[in-house]
């Protein structure tokens, strides 16, 4: 591995940590000695990276620093292409368009050799079963999640029973056959999962729900036994 690649890997590792991380942990993850790690951190700091900390205390990268030019490994390029192709094929139409645009923006700033790898990626997304209706509602749901707004929905459950609900949406799951909105339901006073193809009508509310979506997501993960990320 070249020194430039090693410095880039160090930046990527630091970006993943939101709390100070020890030099030993960083060195172990990167497979280098502590002496090399300290030298690399000093190099990045000299180039303007806002890395706070010192040996024996831990290190934390503050936001606001990028290493030009934009660089990706071969595997990272393949992951970007494969992920974008999946979103285009299995996401809603607006999200699919956004994935195409994002990939085009990335391609525009890649070095020529990496751009060729992106354009020529042979990783393909296989055809899946048609996804049930729900495309039109997804943009509204995603906006409500981002802005932490309530939704008024008319819903038909698996047994065919219809009800009207006020929900606090905080996550949206994309599965091979269905899309599922995860929300707090005021009617049931608990977390509920709503298939988007069973939403009969949907109205966005101006009212914000009283909790933060990240807090609800964490609580829902704990209730469902899903590991925290």
As a whole number of angstroms, the C-alpha radius of gyration is 22 Å
Structural class: alpha+beta
**Proportion in β-strands:** 15-25%
Q: Output the CATH topology of the largest domain.
A: SH3 type barrels
- How do the strands line up in the largest sheet? 6-5-4-3-7
Amino-to-carboxy terminus distance: 29 Å
Number of strands: 7
The global form is: globular
Tell me the series of helices and strands, N- to C-terminal.
HHHEEHHHHEEEEEH
CATH structural architecture of the largest domain: Roll
**Helix share bin:** 40-55%
| CATH class wording of the largest domain | Mainly Beta
The total domain count is 3
Q: What does the average pLDDT come to?
A: 87
Count of helical stretches: 8
For the biggest sheet, the summary is: 5 strands, antiparallel
Q: Which stretches of 5+ consecutive residues score pLDDT under 50?
A: none
């Amino acid at each position: 591995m070249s020194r430039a690649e090693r410095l880039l890997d160090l930046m990527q590792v630091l970006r993943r940590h939101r709390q100070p991380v020890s030099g030993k942990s960083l060195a172990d993850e990167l497979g280098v000695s502590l002496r090399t790690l300290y030298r690399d951190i000093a190099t990045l700091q000299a180039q303007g990276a806002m890395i706070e900390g010192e040996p024996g205390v831990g290190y934390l990268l503050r936001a606001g620093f990028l290493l030009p030019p934009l660089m990706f490994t071969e595997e990272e390029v393949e992951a970007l292409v494969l992920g974008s192709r999946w979103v285009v094929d299995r996401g809603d139409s607006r999200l699919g368009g956004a994935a195409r645009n994002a990939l085009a923006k990335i391609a525009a700033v890649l070095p020529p050799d990496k751009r060729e790898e992106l354009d020529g990626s042979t990783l393909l997304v296989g055809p899946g079963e048609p996804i049930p209706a729900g495309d039109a509602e997804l943009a509204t749901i995603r906006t409500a999640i981002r802005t932490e707004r309530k939704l008024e929905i008319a819903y038909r459950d698996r047994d065919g029973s219809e009800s009207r609900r006020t929900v606090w949406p905080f996550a949206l799951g994309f599965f091979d056959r269905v899309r599922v909105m995860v929300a707090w339901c005021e009617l049931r006073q608990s977390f509920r999962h709503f298939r988007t193809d069973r939403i009969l009508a949907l109205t966005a509310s101006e009212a914000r729900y009283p909790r933060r979506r990240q807090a609800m997501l964490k609580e829902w993960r704990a209730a469902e036994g899903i590991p925290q990320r």
